[in-house]
Design goal:
This protein is of the alpha+beta class and 84 residues long. The chain is elongated, with a radius of gyration of 21 Å. The protein is built from 2 helices and 2 strands; from the N terminus they run E-H-E-H. It has a two-stranded antiparallel sheet. It starts with a strand and ends with a helix. The protein has 2 domains: 53 residues, no CATH class; 27 residues, no CATH class. It binds zinc ion (ZN). The site of zinc ion has 7 residues, from loops.
């Protein structure tokens, strides 16, 4: 049987999208880095930064051995036996 695992709880903050400005890939990279560094400084100063969301990752894992779930299950005898 598979189970849902919730992890990597975090707050994500998105910088402005430099892709809309028609810049080269390297310029976009530099623009993103500059933007996220500026956001990090603002967070440290407790400023209102906007575009803030709370999220976490999910993964389906085997309830017996906690391996990533595959269908049909082949990770452990218990999961294989349960499926047959
Ligand atoms: Zn398993």
């Amino acid at each position: 049987m598979k189970k849902l695992v919730r992890n990597n709880y975090r707050v994500e903050v998105y910088p402005p999208d430099p892709w809309s400005r028609g810049e080269s890939d390297e310029d976009k990279h530099k623009t993103y880095l500059q933007a996220i560094r500026k956001l990090a400084e603002e967070i440290k100063r407790h400023c209102d930064i906007g575009n803030l969301s709370v999220t976490y990752d999910t993964a389906e894992v085997c309830s017996f051995c906690s391996s990533l779930w595959e269908s049909p299950p082949a990770c452990c005898e218990q999961a294989v036996d349960e499926g047959s």
